[in-house]
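Expect chain and fold; thus:
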Amino acid sequence: MGGAGALVFLFVFPKGSISTLVHVLHLPGPGAGIVLIFGPFLILVVITSSLLILARGGALIASLTFAVTYTLAVRLFGIATDPKGAFGSISFIAAVTLFGLVAEAIIALGGALSQLFRSVLTGALANAVLLVFYWLVIFPRTVGWVRWKDIPLLMGICLIGGLVAGYIAWRVSGPLCRVIKQKE
């Protein structure tokens, strides 16, 4: 699912489309595209993958597969991406891998929690870690530092987007599991 998710993301959000959407919504940056589009999309792919396979390491494997597939597709086919997000770079792979590690840790540590609560908690916290990584590692080299006054709004959007995406992943995984079991 990680590889398929990467290809879908690459073609649904071509170069500049995320920046354009963020500007149309008048959201501050840098980071609004990460918390509103990229992070929630990654949450859907990673949490749904993890819930479908129900094995340790599923979130990390889905994240790594997403990052590597996206990067290979961009490089092999010469697809232009928005340089602000460093999509397809080593920093991008590091960000998505860290996202997967955080998701995996929360899923593993939250074993006593319900699957729903684990999914929304994982979505919110992994999205927040992704945003902070971008703020500290990627954006200072590509577009500059986030303004202090924008941090509360962006972090609020980040947490809400992560919660919602985690909930959607949880809701989608149930019917998908039933379909997969019927096919076996």
In short: The chain has one domain: 29-179. The CA atoms of residues 124 and 162 lie 4 Å apart. Residues 29-179 form one domain. The chain has a mean pLDDT of 90.
